[in-house]
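G., the chain you wanted modeled:
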Amino acid sequence: MGRGSSWRSLPLPWAVLALVLVLALTGLASAAATSPQRTIRPATLPSGVVGVTYAERLPAVGRARPTTLRVTRGHVPSGLVLTGAGLLRGRPSARGIWRFTVTAFAPGGSTAGARGYRLTIAAAPPKALRPARPVIGPQSLPAAQLDEQYTGQLTVRGPSPPYALRVTNGALPIGLAVSTTGRLSGMPSEPGKHTFTVSAFKRGKYVAFRDYTLAVEGEVPAPYFTDDFENGLGQWNKEGAPSAFGLAGGSSGQGASITAGPSTTGPSSGVSELASLWLDWPAAHASSGKSTWYAARVMFPAAYDATTGQWNWFIEWHVDDATSGYVATSPSLGVYTDYPVGPNRGRNPRLAFRLNGGPVSDPRTHVFTMPSNSLVRGRWYDLVVHFVWSPSAEVGRAELWIDGRRRVSTSFPTLYTLPNGSASFGYFGLYNYRLKAPWDSSIHFDRVRIGPTLSSVR
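Predicted structure as C-alpha cells:
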C-alpha cells in the first residue's frame, strides 16, 4: 500500500474494522475529558466563629489517581487557607458569608471534580468585661420581713479580685450581718428603713463603696414580760437569804444584783451556794410547740470567781415539779472552768450553754462552750436565747446570741417526755448557783425580756 493511500482503498471488511476502531478510540478520549473521576466531600461546611480555630477536611474520593484541591472561584474566609490535600484550616478574622468553589485536579492538570461551598463565619460572643474600677452590686436590696430569715449576696466586679466587704457608715438592721465575702444574712428584729454604706477593700486599701437602704417590713409584737428593775424586784420570787438580793448600777438605770449564799437545795445540797429570782408561772410560753425568745443583760463584776467545771449557772429554764422528781436537770446558761467538782478557784472561765431534754428516763444532754478564758468581767453581755419547745428533736430548737452574734443554733428535744407521755415545762429564773467556795461574789442582771419574736425582746 503506497504512502498516499487511504483506508477507503482497503477492502471492505478491513475498512469497516478500521472505522470501528477509530470511533472507539475517539469515544474513550471524549469520556476521559468530560467525566469527573472524584467527588469532593462534605456537601456542606459547618459555620465558624471569629477568633476560634477552624479545621475541616475536604477529601476528593473516587477511583482516579491522587488529586490536588484548589479554590478556583471566590475566596475562603479571611484567616483560613485550603491545603492541596484538602484541609481547610486557620482562625477566622472577620465575620460574614463566603462563597467559593473547590476543584480537584489530576496529576496531568485535568480537572477531576468540583464542588461549590457557602461558609458562614459568626462574630465572637462578647466577653464579660470587668470595669476599670471595682463596682459593688447589686444596686438595691429587696425588702426583709421582720423576724424572718433573710439572705442576700453583695458582689464586687473589678480588675483584680478578690475584695473584702464591710459596713463603713450607718448600720445594718439589728439581727443582720454581712461577711467579708458579701453574704448578708440573719433575722432582722427592727422594722423600718435602714441606711448604710458598704465599702470594698483590697489588701486593706479602700477601693469602692455603695449606699444601701434596706426596708424591714412588719410590726413589733408586744412582749410577754419585761423588767428593767427600775421599780425594784417586786415581780420576782426570791430564793435565798434576803441579803442576797439588791440593786446595782445596770446597763441603763439600775439592775438586780444576786449574791450567792449557802444553800441546802440543788444536786449538791449542803455544799452549794444558791440565790435566785424566778417567775411564779408555769410557762405557758414554754409549752410544747411554742416558740419563745428570752433576753437579758448580764455582768460579772471584777470580784466574780467561778468555782467548778459545771455548777456556775446564772440563767435557767427550770423543770417543773413532776420532772424534777426524776432528778432531771434544766436548760441553762453558765460559766465553765477547767476544774472538775471541787472547792478550788476555777481557771480559764468561759460562757456555756447546756441543753437537756428527751425521755426523762433516758435524757439527752449537750453543752456548748465559748473559747477558754474568754469570760470578760466588768462588762455587760447582751444575751438572747430562742427555744422552740418540744420533746422531739425534729421540732425542738435552741439558739443563743451573744452581743448580737448567733453562737449556737441546733435541733434538740428542749422538753422532757414524762412516763405518762406528757411534756414538761420550764420556769424561768435568774440564778447565782455554784458549789460552795470560801468567798462571796455577785452577778448583775438588767433589762429582762420574754416574748414571741426576736423583735419583741430587743
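The longest strand covers residues 205-217.

Shout if anything looks off.
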